[in-house]
Amino acid sequence: MASIPRKSSPGSNGGLQPAIPDERKRKRMQSNRESARRSRMKKQKQVEDLTGELSRLQIANNQLLQSIGAKEQAFVQVDNMNNVLRAQAMELTDRLRSLNSVLQIVEDVSGLAMDIPEIPDPLLKPWEFSRPALPVADMFLC
C-alpha cells in the first residue's frame, strides 16, 4: 500500500519534517510483521514438539504391544501346561482310586487292617492342595 506523504509544518531549518502518521503506520506495520513472524515460529515449534511427542508415544505404544503379545504367549503356555497338569491329576486320582479299591478288596479277603487314605478331590478344592506349593520360579524349572 502506497501512501501519500503528508506535509508538515516547516521546521527550524526551513525543511519539511517527516510525516508523523506515516512513521506510526510504518512502525505499526513493522511491529505487525515481527509479531506474525514470532507467531509463525511459535506455531512451527509447537508442531515440531507435537511431532516429537507423537513419535515417542508411537514407540512406547509399539513396545507395550510387544510386551502384551509376549505376556499373552506366556499365558497361553502356562494355561496349556495347567490343563495338562489337571488332566494328569485326574488320571492319577483315578489310578489311586483304582489301587485303593484293590487294597479294599485285599483287606476284605485277607482280614488284615490296611490304612487306606481318603482321596481328596483337588479339582473341587484347589486351595486345599495336599503338598506344599512350589515357588513360582521352581514351577518353570520342572
Automatic annotation (TrEMBL):
One of its GO terms (molecular function) is transcription cis-regulatory region binding. The keyword Nucleus applies. Keywords: DNA-binding, Nucleus, Transcription, Transcription regulation. This is BZIP transcription factor 53-like. CDD domains: bZIP_plant_GBF1. Coiled coil: none annotated. It comes from Cucurbita moschata. It is found in: Nucleus. GO terms for biological process: positive regulation of DNA-templated transcription. Residues 1-48 are annotated as: Disordered. InterPro entries: bZIP, bZIP_plant_GBF1, bZIP_sf. GO terms for cellular component: nucleus. The keyword Cell membrane does not apply. SMART domains: BRLZ. Residues 22-68 form the BZIP domain.
